[in-house]
Write a structure and sequence with these properties.
By secondary structure, this protein is of the alpha+beta class. It contains five helices and two strands; from the N terminus they run E-H-H-H-E-H-H. It has helices spanning 13-21, 27-33, 35-42, 55-62, 93-98, and strands spanning 4-8, 49-53. It has a two-stranded antiparallel ribbon with strand order 1-2. The protein starts with a strand and ends in a 9-residue tail after the last helix. The model has no long low-confidence stretch (mean pLDDT 85).
Length: 107
């Protein structure tokens, strides 16, 4: 049973560009979109990573449940949709206005 997961982030700029190129991102696009990260790595940022404990999995074990969906507050289906909250969904104009946001749609 996996209770935590973690990884060391990619910290080699040329490898980062190569991996992004497989997703059809050119080196310039990567530099524009991830400028902070690519600059930091070019100046020698050390390898770093993290770990994230799976609190939901620990609760599943404590509750003696076999399926994580039994303890998850907002379970999602196979398409990453929350059917209880109808998410993800479109946002209406009133919701945008309330948050002082606007959409700039591509033409």
């Amino acid at each position: 049973m996996e209770l935590s997961s973690g990884a060391i982030r990619n910290h080699i700029p040329e490898l980062m560009y190569k991996l992004f190129s497989s997703a059809v991102h050119h080196k310039k696009q990567v530099k524009d979109i991830f400028s902070g990260m690519s600059i930091a790595f070019c100046y020698g940022a050390p390898p770093h990573g993290g770990i994230a404990p799976g609190i939901d999995r620990i609760v599943m074990l404590l509750a003696n449940e076999k399926n994580i969906r039994e303890i998850t507050m907002f379970p999602m289906n196979q398409n990453a949709q929350d059917l209880i909250m109808n998410a993800p969904s479109t946002v209406n104009e009133n919701q945008l206005k309330e948050l002082n946001l606007s959409l700039k749609l591509k033409k």
